[in-house]
């Protein structure tokens, strides 16, 4: 792809790949994160050198198709990956603390208090035999040392904050007594119960119908602005990324291949994979036309390619693409992409 010709386009891999926020504003700093899953005779390189930063109060969306390493990256930030079969390398700092060096006790205090997570399936996040209000109250009591009645009062405030109707009555519900949309609102209330500085959202609207999806997205956006949280949002949906993000990082085969502001990624994508994602979106403007699709499929990360992982699916790929991993090229203040053709 041919780049416009602004002055000072240059290749600065280390700086570019992290799209660095000012040091004083950084809440999250991830450097060269690698996550490998081991099994007898097989090692899957799920995340392969990810660098990310997140400023205070910023919303970053990690965008990519299934298997790109998005959710694994989030779970690494929470240290939720199984220790026995997982190898994690690199550096993860949240609020100045080294997450990979934390003890079990430190992790217990970190999860829910500094960083919290909204999962794709809210029903799996709640214990089915306890009332939802009691589960939220228990979280508050554990982290803040308050009484159970004070914890329930906080749970009621949170139910009202996430706009659950008949909030007081709903506190007594068991998880199975709530609809999908209400369960996700309760999951958000649980995640916000200790006022975390960082919220991780792993495709929280995927299992919901379209009407409820937009309600949850608008709710999350409003809560982020009201509470001033930093958010990392994972999705495969470009429309969702456009709705909620300040900045987007596009992942493919365990690497970030392009990062930029919403306008830069949505309106002026530069990496061939990002361009392909944009062209494959369903839109009312394309009614009656055949949707474009990216040919082929992602590589098996148990046997990662030597060069650019997207090369086998890219119409512009050259021998250089096949043999060497492309460096990141700076395209703007926050915009970079890793492609030999730029």
What does this structure look like?
The protein is an alpha/beta fold and 342 residues long. It has twelve helices and twelve strands. The strands form two sheets. Strands 6-7-8-3-9-10-12-11 form an eight-stranded mixed sheet, sandwiched between helices. A hairpin with a 2-residue loop joins strand 9 and strand 10. It is globular and about 65 Å long. The N terminus is likely disordered.
Largest sheet, strands/sense/barrel: 8 strands, mixed
Principal-axis shape equals: globular
Q: Looking across the biggest beta sheet, what order are the strands in?
A: 6-7-8-3-9-10-12-11
What distance separates the N and C termini? 6 Å
> Low-confidence stretches at least 5 residues in length (pLDDT < 50)?
1-20
**Helix count, DSSP H or I runs of 4 or more residues:** 12
* Percentage of β-strand residues: 15-25%
Write down the Rg.
21 Å
Number of strands: 12
What series of H and E elements makes up the topology? HEEEHEEHEHHHHEHEHEEHHHEE
Mean pLDDT score, rounded?
88
Q: Based on helices, strands and strand pairing, what is the structural class? A: alpha/beta
Percent range for helical residues? 25-40%
């Amino acid at each position: 792809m041919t780049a416009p010709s602004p002055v000072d386009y240059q290749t600065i891999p280390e700086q570019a790949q992290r799209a660095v926020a000012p040091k004083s504003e950084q809440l999250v700093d991830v450097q060269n994160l690698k996550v490998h899953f081991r099994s007898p005779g097989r090692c899957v390189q799920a995340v392969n050198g990810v660098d990310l930063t997140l400023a205070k109060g910023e919303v970053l969306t990690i965008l990519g198709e299934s298997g790109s390493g998005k959710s694994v990256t989030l779970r690494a930030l929470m240290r939720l990956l199984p220790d026995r079969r997982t190898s994690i390398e690199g550096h993860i700092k949240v609020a100045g603390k080294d997450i990979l060096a934390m003890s079990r006790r430190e992790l217990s205090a970190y999860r829910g208090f500094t960083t919290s997570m909204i999962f794709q399936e809210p029903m799996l996040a709640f214990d089915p035999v306890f009332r939802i209000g009691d589960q939220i109250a228990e979280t508050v009591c554990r982290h803040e040392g308050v009484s159970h009645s004070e914890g329930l009062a906080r749970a009621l405030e949170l139910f009202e904050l996430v706009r659950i109707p008949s909030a007081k009555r709903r506190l007594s519900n068991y998880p199975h007594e709530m609809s999908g949309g209400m369960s996700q609102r309760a999951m958000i209330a649980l995640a916000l119960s200790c006022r975390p500085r960082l919220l991780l959202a792993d495709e929280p609207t995927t299992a919901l119908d379209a009407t409820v999806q937009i309600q949850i997205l608008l709710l999350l956006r409003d809560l982020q602005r009201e509470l001033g949280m930093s958010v990392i949002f994972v999705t495969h949906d470009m429309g969702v990324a456009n709705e909620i993000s300040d900045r987007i990082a596009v992942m493919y085969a365990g690497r970030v291949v392009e990062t930029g502001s919403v306008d830069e990624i949505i309106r002026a994508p530069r990496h061939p994979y990002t361009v392909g994602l944009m062209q494959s979106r369903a839109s009312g403007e394309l009614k009656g036309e055949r949707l474009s699709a990216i040919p082929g499929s992602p590589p098996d990360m148990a046997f990662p390619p030597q060069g650019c992982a997207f090369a086998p699916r890219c119409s512009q790929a050259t021998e250089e693409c096949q043999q060497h991993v492309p460096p990141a090229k700076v395209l703007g203040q926050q915009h970079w992409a890793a492609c030999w053709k730029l």
